[in-house]
Amino acid sequence: MTRKPMKRTRTTNGAFDKATKDLADARAGHRCEVCGVGPIEQHHHRMPRRMGGSRAPQVSSVANCCPACAPCHRRIESDREWAVSNGYLVVGSWLPTNTAMVVDGCRVFLTLDGRYEPVPVEA
């Protein structure tokens, strides 16, 4: 009996595929989710891919994808404290789905199906 060769699967190393980008762009109304004005020029990983990428499914998820204009993406990358406090950057063991992000002045959760979910108001 001969063995069949193993099928090689292509890994993305955490990169966003076209379907994920399209879903995030539609969620954002085809504008920057940070400033709400600029055109989408880049797709920011809220939870960084790290050196060499990542196979963790949450890294390439739509909840981790933040469509941004170039100036806002530069600000996220250069002003880490501001980015973390506004949810544009997810750090440590936090997950993108459990980290609220500021969109249009409101804190929302980004869902895995490409929607915004309001953050419950504490009494």
Unreliable spans: 3-11
Spell the H/E element sequence: HEEHHEEE
Q: Report the total helices.
A: 3
Query: What is the number of E strands?
Result: 5
End-to-end separation in angstroms reads 68 Å
Widest β-sheet, arrangement of strands = 3-4-5
Structural class: alpha+beta
Rg computed from alpha carbons, rounded to a whole number of angstroms: 16 Å
Largest sheet: 3 strands, antiparallel
Helical coverage, percent range: 10-25%
- Can you tell me the overall shape? globular
- Percent strand equals 15-25%
Overall residue-averaged pLDDT value: 86
Summarize the structure.
With 123 residues, the protein is an alpha+beta fold. The protein has helices at residues 18-27, 70-78, 80-85, and strands spanning 42-45, 65-68, 101-103, 106-110, 116-118.
Question: Which key features would you list for this structure?
Answer:
about 20% helix, two-stranded antiparallel sheet, alpha+beta, single chain, about 120 residues
